[in-house]
Structure formats: C-alpha cells, structure tokens
TrEMBL record:
Localization in the cell: Golgi apparatus membrane
SUPFAM superfamilies, alphabetized: P-loop containing nucleoside triphosphate hydrolases
Organism: Holothuria leucospilota
Membrane spanning residue stretches: 59-79
Protein name from the UniProt record: Heparan sulfate 2-O-sulfotransferase hst-2
PANTHER family: HEPARAN SULFATE 2-O-SULFOTRANSFERASE (PTHR12129), URONYL 2-SULFOTRANSFERASE (PTHR12129:SF15)
UniProt-recorded Gene Ontology molecular function terms: sulfotransferase activity
GO cellular component: Golgi membrane
Domain of life assignment: Eukaryota
Protein's UniProt keywords contain Glycoprotein: yes
Length: 381
C-alpha cells in the first residue's frame, strides 16, 4: 500500500511540474505574474493532493481532486491576467506586452525597409521633433505633453519653446537640433530637417488637415487670433476683410497672403532646399519621400487616435498619456480655435480646391498611410 501511494505521488508530481513549466513558458502570464507566485500555488496544490492520495487510495476521487485543483488554479491565473489588462490589478505591473502586441500589428504594414513610418522606438533615449503645419491642431498635442510631463514628473522629458528665428537659416536649425539633449520634445513651425545622431533616436511627427479648411483657418487666425493669442496686426497690411475678397481681387492680398498660406504644408514636409519654396510637382514628390522618415503623420480630426498611436509607438517615453488625456480634455477644448471665421462663397471654395490639387494629392497619400496604421494598431481584431 505504501509503494502504491509513493508511485501515485511520483506520477502526480511529474504532472504538476509539467503543468508548472507550461505556465512559466507562457508569454502572457510571464508579463503579468512573478514566477514565484505560480510556484507557490502549484506547491500548495501538490501538498493537498499528495496528502489525500496517501490516506485515501480511491483512484477515482484522487483523479477527480487532481483535475479540480488544476482547473481552479488555471481559472485563478486567467482571472488575474484579465484584471491586469483592465488595470484592476497592481498599479506597478508592467504592460509592455500590450505595446508589443500593438507593435507587432504595426509591423504588418507593407512599408519599405528604410521607412520609419509606424516603427516603434523603445526607451526614453530619444528626441521628438514636431515640425507642425500651421493651424492643424499641433498646440493641443504640445499642451498635452507639457501637462503630462509636469503632472507625472517625467524628468526624462524636456519640452522646448522653439526659437522661430532659426527657420531662416538651415545651418543654425540643424545645429540646434544636433545639440538637443536626450528626451527633448520640440514643436514649432520649421521645415523638415533630417538629423543623424548616434547617441539618440530622432522621432519625427506631424499633423495635416484638409487643405481648404487649413488655409481658411490660417487666414482668419492671423486676423482675429484665438483664446491664447492676439491678432497679428503687423502682418495684416495686405489682408482683405474676407478671403473671398482676397482671391477675387487678385491683388496684393492674393500675391502675398494667399500664396504664402498656399505653400505652408509643402514647406514643412519638403525641407530647406530652394525647390521647397515653390509649389510644384517636384516639391510634392520630395514631401512624399520625406513622409517615410516620420514615425507618424496624423490628421487634425484624429487627435485621439494620434495620442493612442504615439503611446503605442513610444511605449516608454509616453507611457500612460492616453489615460492622462481625459484629465486635461476640458482644458484643451476650444482653447486654440480661431476666434472668428467668415464662411467662404462657393466660387471661393471651388477655386481653392482646384488651386490646391497638389496638396490634396499629398493629403490623400498621407491619410491612406495613417488609416492603415490606425487600423493595424487600434483595431480590436
């Protein structure tokens, strides 16, 4: 009888150890549970089963008890696992497996091997350059990052006020970015400037907007400002009262103001080369090529998606920023909206859409890539 009990204990021990190894090798459990907790649970189960097996040699009851213990243990671990995903477990649990899953989906996109678009950057040893197109909602994201850095005391993040005078000199601009410290976040209206550094990762991001809406918003923003800025009176010498008059008169307003706003998007994505100061097919092609060097280029109306994607692609640098957005949502609402806009006439709308065909081509190209990335990273499937 003693030999039979020992044999049963040996068999049960082997089975329990095999089940333990299976759990420890599981990636999902390994991300959320300390291995010692699993060992403790399985050891307790082994003691209960072996003691009962020694005293009661009814194999049916022993087998039933053994199966019950294994099932209950597995159910317990699964429930703990789900709570950790929902944030109901310990607040100190790491969630890198969640980001790893998102990144794996992102890598399914059919990008060239040299493309940085949609590629994750792990760690905090990086700098973020946000060369924002005017009136595309970039100040909302800048405000969010600044509040996030202060409230959560993210010492590795350093936000900068970009010196706008550097945009006229490409050498000074490049030198400024080359000497930025690790963790820097810079938002400003500056042309795309490629920086090659071995000490830190350089992350580019941007936002675009429907060309018609962007141009109209830019025109009236300079005239009326918003809740944060005053009208730019010094720059209004050529402005007409409405954008309809500006275009219809074909005078100084059209040649100086409209043409300037027209080139804003391409001037941000093309760079500082002389050709980038023109509105042409060549400028469009350069902007498309440079788009592959960005981590993400979003759309103004997709702010929530942008925040989620940036958290997924920069999992250590912006960890938890999506949840933090809810805390400052009221502060951002309407904060940077242009104070007044005059709806354009139908003739004006038709002219602008026809005149901005190249920018619309770039807009559609960028939005196609963004929608693919959004689907890959944020889809529930």
């Amino acid at each position: 009888m003693c030999c039979l009990a020992r044999a049963l204990k040996y068999i049960l021990t082997r089975l329990l150890l095999r089940d333990l190894i299976h759990h420890l090798r599981s990636r999902s459990l390994g991300a959320f549970f300390n291995g010692f907790k699993v060992v403790k649970i399985m050891t307790s189960s082994w003691r209960i089963v072996t003691v009962l097996a020694t005293r009661f040699l009814n194999f049916r009851y022993v087998l039933l008890l053994f199966v019950s213990v294994i099932i209950l243990t597995n159910c317990f671990l699964i429930l703990r696992n789900r709570k950790s995903f929902r944030g109901e477990g310990s607040p100190n649990l790491e969630r890198k497996e969640v980001y790893h899953s998102l990144v794996t989906k992102g890598n399914r996109l059919e990008n060239k091997t040299t493309s940085r678009y949609g590629k994750p950057v792990v760690g905090t040893n990086l700098i973020v350059l946000y060369n924002a197109v005017p009136k595309t909602g970039s100040r909302n994201f800048d405000f969010l990052v600044r509040e996030y850095q202060v409230v959560h005391r993210k010492k590795y993040i350093t936000t900068h006020i970009f010196p706008q005078n550097l945009t006229q000199d490409s050498k000074l601009l490049k030198d400024y970015f080359t000497h930025l410290r690790s963790g820097s976040f810079v938002r400003g209206h500056f042309p795309f400037t490629e920086i090659k550094r071995n000490d830190v990762h350089v992350v580019y991001m941007n936002t675009i907007r429907d060309p018609l809406q962007r141009l109209i918003s830019n025109y009236y923003y300079d005239m009326y400002g918003d809740n944060e800025t005053y009208p730019r009176y010094r720059e209004l010498q050529y402005h007409e009262k409405t954008i309809d008059e500006c275009i219809s008169k074909q005078g100084d307003c059209f040649n100086n103001v409209y043409e300037y706003y027209k080139q804003q998007t391409f001037s941000m994505f093309c760079g500082s080369a002389p050709v980038c100061r023109t509105y042409s097919r060549e400028t469009l092609e350069i902007a498309k090529r440079n788009l592959e060097k960005y981590t993400v280029v979003s759309e103004t109306a997709k702010f929530d998606s942008l925040v989620s994607i940036m958290e997924a692609l920069l999992p250590d640098y912006l960890k938890g920023i999506k949840t933090f957005t809810k805390r400052v949502q009221k502060q951002m609402k309407g904060r940077f909206h242009t104070s007044r806009k005059v709806p354009p006439q139908n003739l004006t709308v038709a002219f602008i859409k026809r005149d901005l065909q190249l920018e619309y081509e770039f807009y559609d190209f960028a939005m196609k890539k963004f929608r693919q990335l959004e689907t890959a990273l944020l889809s529930s499937g």
